[in-house]
Predict the 3D structure of the following.
Amino acid sequence: MNRSALSNLITLGEGFTTEFKRAGGSHLGRELCAFANATGGVVLIGVTNDGEICGVARHNDLKSEVQSTARSAEPPIAVEINSVGKVLCVTVPAQHSKPYSFGGKFFIREGASSQQMSREEIREFFYKEGLIRFDETVCDKFSFTRDLTKTNWSLFQRRARIPVGMEPATALRNLHLTGESGRMTHAGAWLLARDIRKFSTSADVACALFAGTDKVRILDRRGFHRDVYSMIDDVVAWILSRIKVEYIIRHVKREERPELPEGAIREVVVNALAHRDYRSAANVQIYLFEDRLEIVSPGGLPAGMTEAHLGIRSIPRNPLLFGILHRMEAVEKIGSGIRRVRALCREHGVAEPVIEVSDSWVTTTFPRPESRPESRPESRPESRPESRPESRPESGPESRPESGPESRPESGPESRPENLEGRVLSLLRRAPMARAELSVGLGHTAVSGHLKKVIRSLVDSGLIAYTIPEKPNSRLQTYKLTRKGRSRLARLADTE
């Protein structure tokens, strides 16, 4: 770091990646630990909270103190230290052995301050960093006597290529779908479910066909909630029944050519269900517009993945579930999904999909080609008994307008401002959420104007904050609980 870079940092002020300290002290360890558990950062020793350079003496002694503090963390934190004039700059690069603790406590960066994590936050951190795999955890709601029927076992046995005659307990144990205690994992429950919502309430898929290019008018709405493998087939069939198909006559034989490649659609649907965060309060959303197809999966990218890795490497969020889907041949080839989707679109002569990523969502958008005269119009809705319209697509990153029959204002005591504010704060205690996710978590059918007002009020009062503050109106915007919000939530709990 040079004087110019130092001046720029001080000018920007303290923030998520910058901390000012007048001198080295007892709190240095927690700052280093918090940066190590986040994305890294810089501690400027010899700068006041107001951004004035006061400087520190004995830099060599102070460097030894900083190194000793960093080595005292568990595991040790790698730091880079250099002097710029009177200021000692301690840089914490992005670390790769998370989580880090100092003095037996875990710290995380929250805004411009470092906070000790609660037990629930530590647990959430472990999930977020991929240190605990939810699909491998025991599903307490699964009962072998009630849920493992001959019908769903026979279907699973055929799909997973399990030898005829092998006992279910033996096969499930060998596939690691049951744990050491013999109890079913969440991955096993999702693959053997008759209704997946019994085991994970928002694990279903909601599909909607809209007139035009926005969400004003819904032409068809469909929900799918069988086992994961069946939902993949059901969702792809629904999409294909509603996009245009060109009939091509070759040597007296008629071929059907959908406007978008079926293989690419299936690959993205598989990814949406296999890599989603099943702990999220939102479900997978399929939106079909006149000009595009959107497939929205909750949870963002798995730990260790960035947008630059898409199409290059694969890190499954649910490795056990993904591995069984590969065994079932629902996945063509591990690690090749995005590349294959792009290649199939090029071969089909259509535009490649656009992938948008945020902390809470992954949205894949297929642009639809212009209509051709040979194409048939969208078919009428199917009558599959498993596909009833009770699952709705309001929980995606964009919500429908409040007008229209699909959006009704909430009523009753739960919608009073003081109750609703507390419930919103309680939901955000677990993880950042979009407005639509909050609406689902509150049990509402749509994002109402009243909920929007409550969210704005909470933002204005500093109880919650944008996760994308530079773009308040971003369609990927989510909200997080602030330190002030946690304090308010604690006071509300004390008065109950």
Q: What stands out?
A: Residues 107 and 115 are 5 Å apart (CA to CA).
